[in-house]
Amino acid sequence: MPKKKRSNTIIGKYMPYYYAGASLDFNLIHIDQDYAKANGLPGIILQGMCTMALTAKHLIDNGNPAQLRSIKVRFLNPVLPEDELVFDSVTKGPDVSVIVKNQNGGRVLKGKATLK
Amino acid sequence: MSGDNIIGHEYESDYEVSYEKIKEYVRVLDDQNPYYTDREFVKSLDGGHPFAPPTFAAIYCQPALENLYFDPEFSNLIPRLVHGEQEYHFHEPVRAGNIIHTNAVIDKNYTKTNQAGKIHRIFEIKTTSSNQDNKLVCTGLYTLLFRGE
After folding, report:
1. Which of A54, A68, A79, B87 has its CA 20 to 30 A from that of A108?
2. Pick from A19, A39, A40: which is nearest to B28 by CB?
3. How far apart are CA A89 and CA A100, in angstroms?
4. Other CB atoms within 10 A of residue B136 CB
5. CB nearest to A23's CB, from B58, B80, B89
6. For domain B10-16+60-146, which architecture applies?
């Protein structure tokens, strides 16, 4: 029987800065509004790796992290500060599929994972 | 165009995983999993040090990737570069105190036309990370997309 799980996360206004500090990903598209706009983006965007990390958090759900054997994601649309993300996953045996949407219903990430 | 001669370029780094850095990372994610943050809880499980979240791979791979971003063949592509896809396979869990060696190699470079007719250039980078006991901890595939005008 497939198991479904949903969780929500609000992306803080300053999260791209905090994630940049923690990850050392200081690509200017994440921290400089003018630079991001000059390069065709609506404004600064969240690091894809941060959205992926939040997805892994949703999957592991306070359990043993070693249960996550693999994860593969595609970044579909930029995540912006103050977005509200909804994580939906479906688990069938070891295989998990996951979709992350923003508050407008736009898909920002889709992925697959294996759990043991 | 820059980036043409970059296939096969390799970059290496060593990264020492600290408990403090793990705590800093999970604080950003508001992740309160005791496997990462509760030293006593983890000690009671197997006597070992706290775990790093699996996606902490992004952190210990970053120094090797930074060497790629500063490669003169590549650095001028950065402003229009976005992360398209990411894949990780996890092996031996990473714990505080581990020293992780990462090798990153530029594996593929090709173009793709999207639905709007824009031509994107794709770079695939493979990472292989091992711990101080030479045990494989993670392999990764980074797909970076150079956005067409």
Report:
1. A68
2. A19
3. 9
4. 13
5. B58
6. Roll (3.10)
